[in-house]
Amino acid sequence: MKRVTFSTVLFFSSLSAGAYAQDANKAAAIAAFDDASSLAEQGNLKAACPKFAESQRLDPQLGTLLNLALCLEQNGQTASAWSAFREAAELAEKRGDERQAAAQEHATALKPKLMRMQLDVPKDLPAGATIQRNGARLDQSHWAAAVYLDPGNYVIDVTAPSHKSVQVKVVLQAEGQVTSVEIPMLVATTGTEPAETPAEHSVLAEKWPALAAAGVGVAGGVIWAIFGTQSLSAKATGDKECTAAGCSADGVQARSDALAAGDIATVGMVLTGVGLASATVLWFTLPWGTSEAGAPAVALSDARSTPGARLGVGPTKLELQVVF
């Protein structure tokens, strides 16, 4: 179990409860220090170090600072511990305190173990760019500095107006080494990419002429099937009612009905062929952008008087014409 071996000595040499009884901050600092000392004795350094830091914040004392530094050192936070020991050594030297030697000894021992991180930032990073390390914004003057940091995981976030943000994850674990982190160039989100039109978000919005033509073909097939069946049925009836000698009234009517239904079935057959063929052509050839407003994008025929079927496709309409 980890123990802060000299915390009790420093505690008694640096704090006196009676001297601070009337001071709320100092009383709170004493309580935090006591909690930290207890946690450190239990080996819970992760919880103890923040308590020492809180006590130091409420009532700065050399002894508390040394306890904090030792806690950080034993918790593996080498850079933070080194910084705290240096600060304690400088303060002790100014006061002529004998604990200066111990603080300096720890700082000197930690120096070869320190890890540094240096950002390799592109010179042409966009204006207004910001860099954060674990959520803390870095001053631009420190971007290229090799900074002492504790071992562990770090997340570097780079952002700039009108650009896609970049995130780089770094792990510091090699003692005495400088880890260089390359920051990639940011990619602009405006001005370099074509603007999307609403129609680009839907296949139906682009391919509707082909789907409409397919619908015409299906409708034609239904008409062809229904009236073709009726024509065949009427013809069969007419054949029964008609002989070489002539046709009965029912036979004449049946043959007339057969011809009328046959004409409609023929229209359905033409619609089926034209619609499905057009749908196939349009689906594979229709561009992903709409045509000029008011102008047909595809026309199977410009003839207006020749018998047959024509399909005209415009940006907002589908025109089908059948001429007999």
Question: Which key phrases capture this entry?
Answer:
Immunoglobulin-like; Serine Threonine Protein Phosphatase 5, Tetratricopeptide repeat; 324 residues; 12 strands; rod-shaped; 8 helices; single chain; alpha+beta; four-stranded antiparallel β-sheet; three-stranded mixed β-sheet
Descriptive notes:
The protein has three domains: 7-112, Serine Threonine Protein Phosphatase 5, Tetratricopeptide repeat (Alpha Horseshoe), CATH 1.25.40.10; 115-182, Immunoglobulin-like (Sandwich), CATH 2.60.40; 198-323, no CATH class. Helix 1 (7-14) runs antiparallel to helix 4, helix 3 (45-58) packs antiparallel against helix 4 (62-74) and helix 4 runs antiparallel to helix 5. The model is unreliable at 1-22, 195-201, 290-305 and 313-318 (pLDDT under 50). The protein is 49% helix and 16% strand. It is built from eight helices and twelve strands. The chain is rod-shaped. The strands form four sheets. The protein has a four-stranded antiparallel beta sheet with strand order 3-2-5-6, with no helix packed on it. Strands 4-1-7 form a three-stranded mixed beta sheet. The chain has 324 residues and is α+β, with helices and mostly antiparallel strands. The termini are far apart.
Question: Helical segment tally?
Answer: 8
Mass-distribution shape: rod-shaped
SSE class: alpha+beta
Q: In percent, how helical is the residue content?
A: 40-55%
Strand line-up of the largest beta sheet: 3-2-5-6
* Portion in strands: 15-25%
**What is the mean pLDDT?**
78
**Strand runs, count:** 12
Largest sheet composition: 4 strands, antiparallel
Indicate the multimeric state. single chain
Order of helices and strands: HHHHHHEEEEEEEHEEHEEE
- The parts where pLDDT drops under 50 for at least 5 residues are 1-22, 195-201, 290-305, 313-318
* Rounded radius of gyration (Å): 44 Å
**How many domains would you count in the coordinates?**
3
Separation, N- and C-terminal Cα atoms: 100 Å
